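Input record, target 12 of the design panel.
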């Protein structure tokens, strides 16, 4: 449809609105009466064939958007949809009244909102239908739905105008309903394990808890530079110091990074911290939580994703970072022991190393190149180099390695966790080393947070913590190829920019 055609139709629809008002009909009433969601009606009566029982069910007051409308003289059919489902409506002029039928219903368009009350019956084809006794226009559209709106395909339009995507594509509606269930399921699971949900600042004086570049803002009254949080980690551990032994936060984080199929600057993460636990405890918890969510929401622990079938049934594969480099990435063993060998091997892979100021960061880049894409089934990679894990506790038998794991599925990181470093002196030394790396140009290196060090000086018990990317988990559960498919309003470049 051309812009001229669209403008013409918009003008005609606005004229309909005025004609309704001239006839004493308000096209945008203040309220509607609803007794049931359509989905509840379908659940209760979809298997009922007995017409007498359907008639005795009483009157139902439903409301939603008209998604089809067919006129047959003095009778007509429509389909009405709300967030829970859609049902067929049957109108007869002698039932709903001549004035409504001719002055309102016949002038309505697909896309308008309608309230309808009536009783249930089945048509000759067996479709459960509401025999409408009374109806009311609830909202008149004044912009036409896109052509072929029953399957809006334009990806860019779907992201920019999500409301059209949700109107047109059942797949998108179902995807975001699953997202809602995942979020609620995570809350329910953690609450059942004794975790309490908390809220920590999203604007922070010192950003910390992850290797990422933050967004910067300014508070005028305090004349203070603030950062949108890259993670809630350091505040959640302060709460464990304060005596909240099991805490979690589910909310937004922000990282000033590139946009891709796996990254959006604004994303959702759940972080949880558990006193008197280590990273082994959280591996078991992660297996149990994610597999139970899959079975509860999708009905099966096996989930299709692209060309793969992901099996979330525990136990999941576990392999050390070092062994993954050599056995999965086929890197020579010497790269683990020698920074020079690691840099040499990285250069053979055409990885730029000038900006990588530690052996561990070089190994991390090699891992990302050779290992991560091959981790399809749920896999824990554990025991990372200490210099890329500044907040994790070292292994007693090998101080160059920390008790950290990352969970990978379908070739991407889903979760990051570790036994928390709780020695304030060592934490200060680690943060000072991060500052030195910042001075060398690493914008993602962490800052020194004196108040966090002070909190550790009051005592953090043995604790394990984990962050899970909710968007990426929903991608897996909904077979979505891009993170933008599971974020209702993803970050996009302005049109024409």
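The sequence produced for target 12 reads:
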């Amino acid at each position: 449809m051309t812009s001229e055609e669209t403008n013409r139709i918009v003008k005609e629809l606005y004229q309909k609105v005025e004609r309704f008002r001239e006839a004493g009909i308000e096209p945008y009433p203040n309220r509607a009466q609803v007794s049931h969601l359509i989905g509840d009606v379908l659940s209760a009566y979809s298997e009922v064939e007995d017409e007498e029982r359907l008639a005795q069910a009483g009157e139902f007051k439903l409301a939603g958007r008209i998604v089809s409308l067919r006129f047959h003289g003095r009778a007509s059919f429509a389909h009405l949809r709300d967030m829970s489902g859609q049902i067929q409506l049957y109108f007869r002029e002698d039932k709903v009244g001549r004035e409504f039928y001719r002055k309102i219903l016949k002038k309505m368009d697909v896309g308008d909102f309608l309230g309808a009350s009536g009783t249930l019956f089945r048509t000759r084809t067996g479709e459960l239908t509401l025999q409408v006794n009374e109806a009311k226009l609830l909202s008149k559209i004044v912009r036409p739905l896109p052509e072929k709106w029953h399957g809006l395909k334009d990806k860019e339009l779907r992201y920019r105008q999500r409301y059209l995507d949700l109107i047109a594509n059942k797949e998108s509606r179902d995807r975001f309903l699953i997202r809602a269930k995942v979020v609620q399921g995570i809350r329910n699971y953690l609450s059942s394990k004794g975790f309490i949900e908390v809220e920590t600042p999203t604007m922070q004086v010192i950003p910390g808890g992850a290797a990422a570049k933050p967004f910067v803002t300014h508070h005028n009254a305090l004349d203070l530079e603030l950062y949108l949080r890259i993670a809630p980690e350091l505040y959640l551990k302060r709460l464990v110091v304060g005596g909240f032994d099991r805490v979690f936060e589910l909310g937004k984080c922000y990282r000033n990074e590139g946009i891709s199929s796996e990254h959006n600057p604004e994303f959702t993460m759940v972080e949880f911290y558990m006193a008197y636990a280590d990273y082994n405890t959280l591996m078991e918890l992660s297996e149990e939580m994610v597999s139970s969510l899959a079975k509860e929401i999708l009905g099966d622990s096996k989930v299709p994703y692209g060309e793969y079938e992901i099996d979330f049934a525990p136990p999941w594969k576990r392999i050390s970072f070092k062994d993954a480099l050599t056995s999965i990435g086929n890197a020579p063993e010497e790269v683990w022991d020698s920074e020079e060998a690691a840099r040499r091997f990285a250069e053979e892979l055409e990885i730029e190393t000038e900006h990588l100021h530690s052996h561990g960061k070089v190994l991390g880049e090699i891992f990302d190149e050779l290992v991560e894409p091959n981790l399809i089934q749920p896999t824990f990679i554990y025991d990372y180099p200490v210099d890329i894990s500044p907040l994790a506790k070292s292994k007693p038998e090998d101080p160059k390695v920390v008790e950290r794991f990352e969970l990978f599925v379908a070739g991407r990181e889903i979760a990051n966790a570790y036994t928390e470093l709780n020695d304030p002196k060592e934490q200060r030394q680690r943060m000072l080393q991060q500052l030195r790396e910042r001075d060398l140009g690493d914008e993602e290196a962490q800052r020194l947070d004196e108040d966090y060090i002070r909190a550790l000086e009051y005592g953090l018990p043995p604790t394990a913590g984990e962050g899970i990317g909710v968007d990426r988990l929903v991608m897996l559960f909904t077979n979505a190829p891009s993170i933008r498919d599971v974020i209702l309003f993803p970050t996009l470049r302005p049109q024409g920019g």
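The first strand starts at residue 60 and ends at 72.
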